[in-house]
Amino acid sequence: MTTTRSPQIESAHERDEFYIRQPYEVYSEENHTTWTRLYARMEDRWAEFANRHFLAGIERLHFDQSAVPRLEDVNEFLRPLTGFSAKAVSGYIPAFQFFDCLARREFPTTITVRPGDNLDYLPEPDIFHDIAGHVPMHTDPAFADTLVRFGTLARRAAARARKLPDLDDRVRQLSSVVKALSRFFWFSIEFGLMDDGNGTKAYGSGLLSSYGELEHSLRSPEVQRYPFQLEWVVNQAFEVDSYQPLLFVIESFDQLFELVGELDDWMVEGRLDNVAQGEPDVGTADIRSFLSAPEEVVIA
Ligand SMILES: [Fe+2]
């Protein structure tokens, strides 16, 4: 079940079946070997560069390194810790659904495995990125609460847009707000660094699942590292296909939780309605997902 070469998964996605079963029997020997190789080479890097909450999470999840993980096994260890679970998806899911999953403590999880001859770079997520990079963070209660708080912003964004009578205005507002929220997610959950007084370490899953970029993010003199500043982050474009030249450092997950609260306030005050242009592009499917979001506002 290799990324971009799994007809069963791709056809489910084409039918808009976003949430699927993990068809475990379809994984090939190569898939299992790839998982083992990816995992084995990360261990030393994690020991050196990963934040302590991630390392504690890895211990508590008891991954079997010799085979691609079964989501149900992962969830058995994960759920009692924070209520989070990994939920299998057929690929990219529209932005509103992604946020809403987080608010329900479900993490949309890619189940395909990157090709064995391309361990280093893949533009799309795979199970190693999602399970080994993200899920260990979901064992930490403060981090988990932060993700949930972030997820709830989507319903408020949808409700705000709904108040505008003109469809063009709704689209314009949502394009900017979703861009700002995506940038926040990118510079924290995906590529965040943390210095809690014991040196700077990575907590972002894009870093934690990348053999090359994890070390680069913390050691390279080419990388700019600044304290996390909300007004900068929501206006900062990023590119997905090269090592990040600019990273932001938080002090704790309590601080990140407060920053999500501030992001929420800014959104409600309209301060995210016209952020700087540039990546990421917010696609039609994402906008549509917000326009057709359920009406009731549920605040978790
Ligand atoms: Fe990710």
Describe the protein:
With 300 residues, the chain is of the alpha/beta class. It has one domain: Aromatic amino acid hydroxylase (Phenylalanine Hydroxylase). Helix content is 52%, strand content 8%. The chain has 13 helices and six strands. The chain has helices at 7-14, 29-49, 52-61, 71-82, 95-103, 127-134, 141-162, 167-190, 205-208, 211-219, 230-233, 253-268, 284-291, and strands spanning 85-89, 106-110, 193-195, 200-202, 224-227, 246-250. The strands form two sheets. The chain has a four-stranded mixed beta sheet. It has a two-stranded parallel sheet with strand order 1-2. Helix 2 runs parallel beside helix 10 and helix 7 runs parallel beside helix 12 (253-268). It is globular. The mean pLDDT is 94.
Brief overview:
With 300 residues, this protein is α/β, with parallel strands linked by helices. It contains 13 helices and 6 strands.
Question: How do the strands and helices of this protein lay out in sequence?
Answer:
Blueprint: H1 7-14, H2 29-49, H3 52-61, H4 71-82, E1 85-89, H5 95-103, E2 106-110, H6 127-134, H7 141-162, H8 167-190, E3 193-195, E4 200-202, H9 205-208, H10 211-219, E5 224-227, H11 230-233, E6 246-250, H12 253-268, H13 284-291
Parallel strand pairs: 1-2, 3-6, 5-6
Antiparallel strand pairs: 3-4
Helix pairs in contact: 2-10, 5-7, 7-8, 7-12, 8-13
The protein binds fe (ii) ion.
Fe (ii) ion binds at residues 125, 129, 134, 190, 205-206.
What are the low-pLDDT stretches, counting only 5+ consecutive residues below 50? none
> How many structural units, i.e. domains?
1
Distance between the termini: 35 Å
CATH topology: Phenylalanine Hydroxylase
C-alpha-based Rg, rounded: 19 Å
CATH superfamily: Aromatic amino acid hydroxylase
Mean pLDDT: 94
CATH class: Mainly Alpha
- Sheet with most strands: strand arrangement: 4-3-6-5
Helix fraction by DSSP (H/I, runs of at least 4): 40-55%
Bound molecules: fe (ii) ion
Number of helices: 13
H/E topology pattern: HHHHEHEHHHEEHHEHEHH
User: Strand-residue fraction?
Assistant: 5-15%
Assign the structural class, choosing from mainly alpha, mainly beta, alpha/beta, alpha+beta, or little secondary structure.
Answer: alpha/beta
